[in-house]
Amino acid sequence: MWSFPLTPDSASTLSGSVDALMLFLLLVTIFFSLLIAFFIVFFAVKYRASNRTVNREGAPDSHVGLEIVWTVIPLIIVMFMFFWGTGVFYKFKTMPNDAVQIHVVGKQWMWKIQHPEGQREINELHIPLNKAVQLTMISEDVIHNFSVPAFRVKQDVLPGRYTQMWFQATKTGRFHIFCDQYCGTLHSHMTGEVVVMAPKDYEAWIGKGPFPSEAGSAAAPTPTSAGEELFTKMGCSSCHIATGEGRAPSLVGLYGKKVVLNNGQSVIADDTYIRESILKPAAKVVAGYEPIMPLFQGQLTEENVLELIEYIKSLKGTADGIAR
Amino acid sequence: MESLAKKESYLGSDFDLKSWLLTFDHKRIGLLYLLAITFFFMIGGIGAMLIRLELLTPQPDVLSAELYNRAFTLHGVTMIFFFMIPSIPGVFGNFFIPMMIGARDVAFPRLNLTSFYLYFGGALFGIAALLLGGVDTGWTFYTPYSSTYSNSNVILMAVGIFIAGFSSILTGLNFIVTIHKMRAPGMTWFRLPLFVWAHYATSLIQVLGTPVIAVTLLLVALERLLHFGIFDPKLGGDPLLFQHLFWFYSHPAVYIMVLPGMGVISEVIACFSRKKIFGYSFIAASSFAIALLGFFVWGHHMFLTGQSVYAGVVFSFISFLVAIPSAVKVFNWTATLYKGKIYLRTPMLYALGFIGLFTIGGLTGVMLGTLGLDVHVHDTYFVVAHFHYVMVGGTIMAYMAAIHFWWPKMFGRMYSEFLGRLSALLVFVGFNLTFFPQFILGYLGMPRRYHVYPPEFQVLNVFSSAGASILAVGFILPFFYLLGSLVWGKKAGPNPWGATGLEWQNADSPPITENFEKTPHVTEDPYEYHGEDMPDE
Amino acid sequence: MSEFHELSHQYDDLVQQREAAQLGMWVFLVTEILFFGGLFMAYTLYRMEYPDVYAECSKLMDWRLGALNTAVLLTSSLTMVLAVVAAEQGRIKALIRWLFVTIGFGGVFLIVKAYEYHHKFVEHLIPGPNFTHELANRGPAQIFFSLYFAMTGLHAVHMIVGIGILSTIAWMASRGKFSPTYNNPVEISGLYWHFVDLVWIFLFPLLYLIGSR
């Protein structure tokens, strides 16, 4: 079949929106390019020097009305593009409420993926069809970018803070993952595949254990339970007592709440805040508490931190000692 | 009507190396720049050839990953900092601004020579970095890769760009003062050629923007050398701060590259249509609008970095606004052709090519500024295609137009018009064949700076590499016929194109050292063409 | 007539030459504002992010030495003005004298700065491997000191260049190059010197005076 693809697979809920936007922009580009090209060629031929008989009388050298027209019309067109494009952008940036939460840690030169049910993958991301998936991502070293052209989406992956993206696949199959921010020697090798599976197949895959390609693996700890284990092992539980009686604030119900710091500022306890508080606790100290929490930088991997965050997220409830 | 003693041209009759290397004459300095940028264009071109050779196949068969990363860094750094930015201002700005305003030289001739050596010296640091193993960060030097992780000669290259940056600043300073203070009697602001207006706007950007990248690269060097940690997240630093500082200069830098080219186009279109330029004051004003707005759009390179959505929205909005003055220029140039007397000589072919290709490049820039689309095409070959359309299809075509337009004045010789047109055609065809497929590759998802790629991208890459070889021939040919014209070319006389503009109104080509026998007194508006024939018709 | 030696060939008269020199120096100072501006921007962003750490670091700075340096520079700007006035009035000996006094003050500034840097070295507050002060685990503290050294270092480089320029001007004055009709270089060097002084006026409070004492 004569197939010369001009677009990649259209495999997500938003790829159609992007392609439609692109088509509009393309048509405008083609229109104006052809318009200018036409006039250039037309005038160059009609008014060529060897044409002695054409009427060149009254050649104008300015026309304010024309200037206004060709300023205002392009302005209107680009404003239209701006609003349309911003609308599509907001769809990409509005995280869905009920997405499957997957952690991605990028490092030179591979993608490490952690499913909430415990599966770990390297350079492959298995996801279910027709379900929103949200990636929380961080880099261990330099800036990377997680890109899935078939979903028309990508997002920089930064060291030191989390970034997020979401997508919902509408087709099964295997689709390219590219690292799309130059990150060093093997940047072009930092690729992988998203594997979209029908729900039944996905369930089966999940049930297969932490490294599904290996036969007979035992059930893996989920990030939440791994986080709980770490919470005890690293000594967090000795100060962060759930009832709030300890030397450190209770973490029950913390995630997403406003926290007041000892300098009067307040912040939202999101992933980045929790990560910073684990690795560099003295940076932001909760009001009413001493800066005595030890540094955990260097003692925990990014995956460990993500697991702790998952555990803290799971501490819902109305125990007293909710973060003030 | 012979003058008592015919004064020697600025070229002199015997070749005295010292008088050339230590010259204060703006024209000779322009030629020094011409030699240097041609040299660095070739170095950057070698980088391009290595890239396109490697990308013929999906596998890594020509270069290792390390070498490929150094090749594209070499190509980007050399082309941007050591070729494009100094090119039109350094060669034609230096040579012709004083002549166009009726002056004997620029305001600060010794500073002018200093600028040249700063540029050349800085560029030599770049060569040193190359010879000592290269740099592998890309021309964008993103942290923390460049500040902490890369094992290449980042500091050496940063020093080179730092030094060359001062050349750009001082040239801009020189032009601003020259244009303000050295205009001949009667040369009011609104009688200035648009080439001068364009360089004034460019100089404002050079003077305001370049210091920021200088200090940014200084910080990267300090971080590498002394582990300062300003961009290191482990020490509380923010790698994105680098990107903000870097792009604060590097976006206006693209206007430093294109505005002088636009100035050239105005001169050429008017001359080869034998007509006043359409919308003179609108074109002049557009240059300033571009310079001003260009300082407020840098964040459009950072839509996907995790910066706030609101910041992205503001930067996108202003990016759309900055497109409008460029569009206004394109329409005005096209309108100039209406009822003109069009001569399709080589400079005009390049100028018309510029208008078409810059339109495509500019509109694809608008696409990239569209947030919803940028999510998909950011950091893909779509971006590569866009900037080559504006930089090569735009600026380099303008540079070619300039050299073919002003060569007779600079050297007193005409080149082969046939070869000129042939090269222009080869450049146009080669260029489009090289870069148009890259738009498609980008939308299909092929990332930038990839040295291996999935096999489905090969066909388009082969087209692109084929185009590159044609483009190379188109660029190499002028080297030969222009040099050849110095020996075999017809003598040009003072004004072979019958052009207006003070640079053509002197006794002969090449001009005398003082430019004019007597200081001109200007009484006419610029571009006083009235449909007269070309002198050689 | 000495006037003819003073007029460069590209100018029509001394007035044009003087105006061009002045405009040139002002444009150059604008570029310097942008040059330091990048550092001030980095400083501001990190201060907004880590106000407490900045305050703690600032307390480690010796504000008395900073104040001394501020007084020294302000005085040097005064003596620079006196030098320019002397040049305009053709009092060449006075010009040279005031230039040397200005240079002297510049030297004092640099000596005090060198002492401060040495002190930071002894206290282990130099970013990098030397930074083992107890503030080290407050990561952003290194950033404060990185910016301190970058900003004051860059300023010191400008001071050294300024001293070089003033020395050259003094030498030129001793060769009789200046007169009431021609003294551009003195005037524009003065502009440069005042600018370098002004940068310090901003650096001093931003680096030395944050946080309560």
Write the layout of secondary structure elements.
The complex is a heterotrimer of chains A (324), B (537) and C (213).
Chain A: H1 15-46, H2 64-93, E1 100-107, E2 110-114, E3 120-122, E4 124-128, E5 132-139, E6 144-148, E7 153-157, E8 163-168, E9 173-179, E10 192-197, H3 199-206, H4 223-233, H5 236-239, E11 258-260, E12 266-268, H6 271-279, H7 302-314
Parallel strand pairs in A: 1-5, 4-10
Antiparallel strand pairs in A: 1-2, 2-3, 5-8, 6-7, 6-9, 9-10, 11-12
Chain B: H1 17-21, H2 26-54, H3 65-100, H4 109-131, H5 145-149, H6 154-181, H7 194-226, H8 239-273, H9 280-293, H10 309-337, H11 346-369, H12 371-377, H13 381-411, H14 417-444, H15 458-488
Chain C: H1 2-6, H2 14-49, H3 51-59, H4 63-88, H5 92-122, H6 140-174, H7 184-208
Helix pairs in contact in C: 2-3, 2-6, 2-7, 3-6, 4-5, 4-7, 5-6, 6-7
Description:
The complex is a heterotrimer of chains A (about 325), B (about 525) and C (about 210). Chain A is an alpha+beta fold and about 325 residues long. Chain A has three domains: about 10-40 and about 65-95; about 100-205, Cupredoxins -  blue copper proteins (Immunoglobulin-like); about 225-315, Cytochrome c-like domain (Cytochrome Bc1 Complex, Chain D, domain 2). Chain A is about 35% helix and about 20% strand. Chain A is built from seven helices and twelve strands. In chain A, the strands form three sheets. In chain A, strands 3-2-1-5-8 form a five-stranded mixed sheet, with helices on one face. A five-stranded mixed sheet of chain A has the order 4-10-9-6-7. In chain A, a hairpin with a 4-residue loop joins β6 (about 145-150) and β7 (about 155). In chain A, α1 packs antiparallel against α2 and α4 (about 225-235) packs across α7 (about 300-315). The longest helix of chain A has about 30 residues, at about 15-45. The radius of gyration of chain A is 27 Å and the shape is elongated. Chain B has a single domain, classed as Cytochrome c oxidase-like, subunit I domain (Cytochrome C Oxidase, Chain A). Chain B is globular and about 70 Å long. Chain C starts with a helix and ends in a 5-residue tail after the last helix. Chain C has about 210 residues and is mostly helical. Chain C has a single domain (about 1-210), classed as Cytochrome c oxidase, subunit III, four-helix bundle (Four Helix Bundle (Hemerythrin (Met), subunit A)). Chain C has helices at about 1-5, 15-50, 50-60, 65-90, 90-120, 140-175, 185-210. The radius of gyration of chain C is 20 Å and the shape is elongated. Chains in contact: A-B, A-C, B-C.
